[in-house]
Amino acid sequence: MNTRFSSLAVFAFLIGPLSATEVPPGWETRSVREEVRPEFSFLGEGGPDGTGGLVICCTGGEEQIGCWKKEFPVAGGKWYRFSARRKTTGVAYPVRSAPARLIWMNAGKRMVRGEEDVRWPDYPPDRTTDETGWTEVSAVYQAPEQATQVMVELYLQWAPGGRVEWSLPRLEERDPPEPRLVRLAGVHYTPSGGKTREENLRQFAAPVAKAAEAGADLVCLGEAITYVGTGMSAAEAAEPIPGPSTEFLADLAKTHRVHLVAGLYERVDKTIYNTAVLLGADGRLLGKYRKLCLPREEVEGGMAPGSEYPVFKTGLGTIGLMVCWDVHFPEVARGLGLRGAEIIAMPIWGGNPTLAAARAIENQCFLVTSTYSSGEKQMKTGVLDPRGEWLATAKEQGEIAIAEVDLNKTYYWRFLGDFRNRVWRERPVGGFE
Known about the structure:
Blueprint: H1 7-10, E1 14-16, E2 28-31, E3 39-43, E4 53-57, E5 65-73, E6 79-89, H2 94-97, E7 100-105, E8 114-115, E9 118-119, E10 126-129, E11 135-142, E12 149-157, E13 163-167, E14 170-174, E15 181-188, H3 197-202, H4 205-213, E16 218-220, H5 234-237, H6 244-256, E17 259-268, E18 271-279, E19 285-290, H7 296-300, E20 311-313, E21 318-321, H8 330-338, E22 343-347, H9 353-363, E23 366-370, E24 381-384, E25 390-394, E26 399-406, E27 412-413, E28 417-418, H10 419-426
Parallel strand pairs: 15-16, 16-17, 21-22, 22-23
Antiparallel strand pairs: 1-2, 2-5, 3-4, 4-13, 5-12, 6-11, 6-13, 6-14, 7-12, 8-9, 10-11, 15-26, 17-18, 18-19, 20-21, 23-24, 24-25, 27-28
Helix pairs in contact: 8-9
């Protein structure tokens, strides 16, 4: 696919007639071709607050595509908050079928976001949906220096029999957003000499303290830390969660005021899971994740896989958890990403660092890991950014890999633009719901 944009390609739409209902000044409709044009109308008392609704209905098949569009004046270099609300009926995948798009233009009507030979639009992400079905679509952007206006487009596409109603959007000048800085740390430590769960746990007290002294907000420990090197079977090491080990970890987290992630073996009656837990800086157990992808060794050991993709909203950001073998498959990280994970913490025995980077790239999230392997081509303890680059790594026993990241930073890619917000609009549907 040719990913290069030109002003001709962007504006190669047909402007069609509007509904007989009076439409606010400046709004027009477009479709790629007349034969795939959906129906447009305006509701004077529509929208979530009764101030007007821009409606698109797909009365045909999945080929129908169209948008409402309007230009808004902007000043280059200033910051703006775009916001609109959207309600769909009969649309299977609203995030994919009903996007908003912003095209920043200069006085000559040429797109100016991006590089000289490659331009791209912005795609504001979906936020929360209220109890009446209205979803906020919003984001804060800095207008490119050359921009004099922005074209706002509100779509419905690929939704046979579907309907969308958009509120009249707002574009408001605002101050630059504050960064959301979080210090992520992976502990590179393999417990040894312990014969019990408690003896292994005590060995992590010093590395956690060291990470906290370095300013860590979130500390990731390894996989199955109460089992490694003890000589116990998985069944013998397994325990309830919450239980004695989470109580010990909770005290560590609370003492050092850090969020703490660790891998444990969990027992529920006769069932054993390979589980990662998340403790808050106040010592509360914020949640757990049961490993979804089990290698043959764990299957032969009688373990069971989990079935959910939980994420946890914290004061640091939205955190997801994975464990070891999960990294070799795209579904787990994608399932967490779809639920809003900004950070994924992954206790891992050993694995493929290239695939770990892929998981960060695919889902445009930060990945913090703790592994027991140390080889140059083996899995690393460290922090990956959404470009798949290691911001910090650790190799020696007891060493801490720590990196400060900004969760509000936008990573613009050549040819792709803001891939984090494009990926959810353009991914294939099915398989990860």
